[in-house]
Amino acid sequence: AQSVSQHNHHVILSEAASLELGCNYSYGGTVNLFWYVQYPGQHLQLLLKYFSGDPLVKGIKGFEAEFIKSKFSFNLRKPSVQWSDTAEYFCAVNAWNAGNMLTFGGGTRLMVKP
Amino acid sequence: DTGVSQDPRHKITKRGQNVTFRCDPISEHNRLYWYRQTLGQGPEFLTYFQNEAQLEKSRLLSDRFSAERPKGSFSTLEIQRTEQGDSAMYLCASSRGRQGGTNEKLFFGSGTQLSVL
């Protein structure tokens, strides 16, 4: 069965700091990878996704993620965070033998101090 | 608002009672998903519909849980004989459902928060 690990449960940063959130998955085959974000009081929404091609993918609001197949990782990055990035971030994986099931990590709560 | 809507937003019930939740997906979306999320965890997949057909069910979905999507539009999730362990946020999501589209973007609703006393 596939599983997803997010290493940091809580991250606190000051504005303009750089961000990297870790995500590792356990599945050796082909995967589709996603980052979803949940802002306070809002529903989950897609930040970015990878399914093929360039392993460095860019999403909304200046976020990017890099798929490193050899490390089973899909870390999320942003060079300079803003207070409005305060949210919970979820990494998710869909393995090609898992139908349409997305497996989510436990999430990382990011607080950006103004 | 043309997003995914869920009703009710909150439900408090006593152990042993039955509850039913409703999800209205985005109108042109063929696929509908139910997930469950407990505090401090990510969403866990429960089940998935392609139009009115329930194509996948998680092992998490015990026989007390049943989901329907009778006309391929809205869906209901019923929990019978609720237990305290059923307390969670129940999320619904939908997607366009292009053939083979396992890399699709899911659109989530705001969820139904269930509390079983």
Protein architecture, described:
The complex is a heterodimer of chains A (114) and B (117). With 114 residues, chain A is an all-beta fold. In chain A, 0% of the residues lie in helices and 50% in strands. In chain A, the strands form three sheets. In chain A, strands 2, 5, 6, 10, 11 and 12 form a six-stranded mixed beta sheet that branches. A four-stranded antiparallel beta sheet of chain A has the order 3-9-8-7, with no helix packed on it. Chain A has a two-stranded antiparallel ribbon with strand order 1-4. By secondary structure, chain B is mainly beta. Chain B contains no helices and eleven strands. The termini of chain B are far apart. Classes of the chains: A mainly beta (114), B mainly beta (117). The interface between A and B is medium-sized, with 25 and 25 residues.
Topology:
The complex is a heterodimer of chains A (114) and B (117).
Chain A: E1 4-5, E2 10-14, E3 19-21, E4 24-25, E5 31-38, E6 45-50, E7 56-58, E8 64-68, E9 73-78, E10 87-95, E11 103-104, E12 108-113
Parallel strand pairs in A: 2-12
Antiparallel strand pairs in A: 1-4, 3-9, 5-6, 5-10, 7-8, 8-9, 10-11, 10-12
Chain B: E1 5-7, E2 10-13, E3 19-24, E4 31-37, E5 44-50, E6 53-57, E7 65-68, E8 75-79, E9 88-95, E10 107-108, E11 112-116
Parallel strand pairs in B: 2-11
Antiparallel strand pairs in B: 1-3, 3-8, 4-5, 4-9, 5-6, 7-8, 9-10, 9-11
